[in-house]
Amino acid sequence: MLRGVGTVFGREVGQYFASPAAYLIAFALLLLTGLMFNSDLTFSVTQKAADPALIPSFLSFAMVFFAPLLTMRMLAEESREGTLELLLTAPVSDTAVVLGKFLGAWFYYSLLLLVTLIYQVILAAITQPDLGHAICAYIGIWLYGGATLAVGLVFSSLTENQIVAAFLSMSALLLLWLSDLAGEIIANLDLARLIRQLSLQGHYTTSFAVGIVRAEDVAFYAGIMAVMLFITVRIVESHRWR
Amino acid sequence: MIEVHELTKRYGSYLAVDAISFEAHPGEVVGLLGPNGAGKTTTMRILTGFMPPTGGTARIAGYDVMADSLEVRRRVGYLPERVPVYPDMTVSGYITFWAKLRGVTRPRAQVDAVLERVNLADRRNTLIRNLSKGLRQRLGLAQALVHNPEVVILDEPTIGIDPQQVIEVRESVRELGKNHTVLFSTHILSEAEQVCDRVVIINKGRIIAQGTPQTLRAQLQPGVALYVEIGGLGKEAAARLLREIPGIESVERQGDGFAVRASSDMRAALSDAVLHAGCRLLELRPVAMTLEDIFLDLVGRGN
User: Fold this and answer.
1) Counted domains in chain A
2) What does pTM read for this prediction?
3) Do residue A91 and residue B103 have CB atoms under 8 angstroms apart?
4) What's chain B's average pLDDT?
5) How large is the ipTM?
6) By the CB < 8 Å criterion, does B87 face chain A?
7) A126 by DSSP, 3-state: which?
8) How far is A20 from chain B (nearest CA, A)?
9) A83: domain range?
10) For chain A, what is the radius of gyration of the CA atoms?
11) Mean pLDDT of B37-64
């Protein structure tokens, strides 16, 4: 099990560093976060205090678009190139293959997250930011990112076409993201609360983003990852029955 | 080494493989021969643990492909018909990946050895996207051999490469037979005849014949075929003359002469009869039926 996960993980991470697309994604993400940080810094000189959760909160929206780009290739390409057939005849379980791929994506995302810590360093150099708050927000967005990547992986396993995979997972993530807003305009309080509880944002904005770590939110993101990975394993397995 | 018993695979209502049984012993090269869509790939996919059979059993080295799938997969090297590659990886990176995934303990040494074996050592740092089709085929073979499996399964390894490379691949399949049990599929009959110790002919999911190429020919060739050319007589008259010889089963015009089938070797009686009728015997020779004829005959009968 571990050998399979480790080998697949290693290949996926290597693949990110070998592919121009991954560098482009990193470039775009860092450019956008840089712009955000810069403008927030300008405001914080005169009008308000700097927001320690600024970058993580921006990422909670950005991941709707970036997670599909990071995962669309993973299983769609394997099934198009026929390598999935070899993976499924290698002496490793389907779960190990899927887990290895997911951890590869999450690892690459974590590296990007680490690079954005530079903004915290800059902030710490010029002012006294609330570090606890920032750490909280980062833990939150790290889990949040894992959940969005797991959703992306499901759609990558569904199709041989990367563009279709990316489009479908963006739609799904946008829906999960927007359901937070939908919760706000529903009159029935119980229903509104339920919808909010199911949204990705709902477990981030009111807790991690304001500097609170709640077990239920951690469990929510971990649960999303587990369910999505389980679905992916089942879909991969279904290739054996076609 | 490979034991297949009453193996059946159904896709919905379509019967792809219909209760086939065959065996391959250690060190044997067995050819699965049949037209496209005969069920060769499906059979192989079941044997590699890729898909479960609908019925029957298949064992490799004593392990059931369903119950002990992982044990089977550890012992099988598989090259699908379309060589599956990661275009962005280097040759050695690709082989190392499969070596590690299949639990090779010292991947570096094994990778070097297998690249040497398929003659790709000088290309080890080339990106796979830059390899030609023939080289990719060798890469696929290297991938199937890197964990030194007991059984090697090759699905139509000679499709779409140039004749020189076809010869190379056939030679390497023969070589493999020395240390591995090899199951390979083809729809080219002369290839099966050249390469295999035993041939299993399948059509529409059923086995229609199996045995060594020699026994297949002996078993299936009905009677003796002769080619006769007679001079000094019209075609019609010559045909009539031949048909009247007792023991001749059929006479068919073929080029300038006739293809004659008989239950036994009739050459002496035939030449006597021709000379007796005052004609000249221009040509008389036995015709060996190729596996090709046998195959077409069998498949034709199946339809």
Assistant:
1) 1
2) 0.85
3) yes
4) 86
5) 0.89
6) yes
7) helix
8) 11
9) 2-241
10) 19
11) 91
